[in-house]
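Figure 6 in text form: structure in, sequence out.
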């Protein structure tokens, strides 16, 4: 069931009591004023085909938090903390002073975004990998050049990203990286193996039809996990190698 922000003022409403503390030209003040027009309920109503169940967090609140998180470069947990403690964030999102509505929100990145982000991070943290070839066009912060209606083209991009991840992981083994670098490389190996299965020919990979238990859902906040597990399905999300190609060990 889709939740909706109430247009009327509520008890201890942050904007009612604290809006004067914000700079008039700040993004927080702008979002407080225009949030509901920028992110109207109608824009998201197709995501809620049923009117049953508990109402969701209002879409304009979620969108506001994501905008502020991106602008300030915060991790998911840092964004949750800011919403709990930062008056400017509460005013922008239209929340009450005691609100903690996004208690455990995470930005659930898809497989391509996870690989893109962690490949960029590893290359930045480990200068010794600068000579390793990667498909630069696939690392665009928005989206790589790909026809996302074509499963073969998606498989191509996934395969290229995994190939690049594998080369970086192998090359890092001989560099004696420090702890931070080792952690970054290990996380890259993990996300490269958790969501994929062999494609239709050697060296090709595709999105797996299963979801690994304890799947990493964000490289910004790697402690975030999918919550469902079963005793009948277990898959280690790491990148191993056999005959020169990475595999997911299940």
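Output sequence:
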């Amino acid at each position: 069931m889709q939740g909706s922000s109430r247009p009327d003022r509520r008890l201890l409403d942050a904007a009612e009591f604290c809006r004067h503390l914000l700079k008039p030209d700040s993004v927080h003040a702008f979002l407080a004023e225009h949030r509901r027009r920028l992110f109207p309920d109608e824009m998201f109503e197709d995501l809620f085909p049923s009117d049953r169940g508990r109402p969701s967090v209002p879409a304009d609140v979620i969108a506001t938090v994501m905008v502020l998180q991106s602008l300030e470069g915060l991790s998911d947990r840092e964004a949750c903390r800011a919403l709990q403690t930062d008056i400017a964030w509460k005013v922008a999102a239209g929340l009450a002073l005691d609100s903690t509505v996004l208690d455990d929100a995470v930005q659930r990145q898809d497989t391509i975004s996870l690989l893109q982000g962690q490949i960029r991070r590893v290359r930045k943290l480990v200068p010794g990998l600068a000579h390793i070839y990667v498909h630069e066009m696939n690392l665009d912060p928005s989206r790589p050049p790909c026809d996302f209606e074509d499963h073969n083209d998606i498989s191509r991009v996934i395969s290229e990203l995994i190939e690049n991840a594998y080369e970086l992981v192998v090359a890092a083994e001989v560099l004696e990286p420090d702890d931070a670098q080792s952690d970054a490389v290990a996380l890259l190996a993990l996300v490269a193996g958790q969501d994929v299965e062999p494609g239709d020919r050697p060296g090709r990979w595709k999105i797996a039809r299963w979801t690994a238990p304890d799947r990493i859902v964000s490289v910004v906040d790697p402690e975030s996990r999918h919550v469902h597990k079963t005793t009948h399905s277990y898959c280690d999300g790491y990148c191993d190698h056999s005959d020169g190609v990475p595999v997911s060990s299940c």
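Caption detail: Residues 99-109, 224-250 have pLDDT under 50 and may be disordered.
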